[in-house]
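REVIEWER CHECKLIST
Item 1: Sequence provided? yes
Item 2: Single chain? yes
Item 3: Sequence as submitted:
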Amino acid sequence: MHILSLGNCWDNIRHCVICWSEQMIDIKSVEVVYERVIDRFPDVSLTTVVLPGMIASPPDYSMKIENIREEEFVFWGFPSKRLKSKLKRLNADIAIDLSLRYNPLSAYVSLLSGARIRIGFAIPNAGYAFNYQVAPTDVHLGKSSYSVLAKYIG
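Item 4: Structure as written out by the authors:
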C-alpha cells in the first residue's frame, strides 16, 4: 500500500485564485470557501476569476476581481493566447474551481493559472484540470458541497 501525504503542499500559499462559477449559486454557501481560505492562509492574496455569463457577484473579501470576456475564449471554448498569458501572470499557488458541474472554461482557468494545487469537484471530464478533487458523498448529507470543499482545504 502506498500512502500519499499532502503534508507540506499547503506551505507557502501566497496567492489563491478562485474561479467563480457561471451557474446560479447561493452566495452564502460559497462564502464558507472564502472564509476557510482566509483563515487557513491569513496572508493570502485572493483573486476571483469571473467567467462570461456570471449570474451572481462574488462576496466582497477585499480581493482582486479578474473578469474574463467571452471573446477571450476561441474555438470550442479553448482559451486564446492572450488569456493564457493573463492567467499565467496570476502566479497562483492554489486554484479553486467552484463549478459543481463540468465547465471547460473554469477547468481551463484552474489549469492555466499555474497553481501547484488545483482543487475542484470530482465530476466527469474535469480530471485533467485538477490534482485534488473533492467528492461530497451521502456521508456529508445535510451539508452543502461548498462546506465539504472548505473542510478539505484544511
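Item 5: Key structural point noted by reviewer: The mean pLDDT is 79.
Item 6: Recommendation: ____
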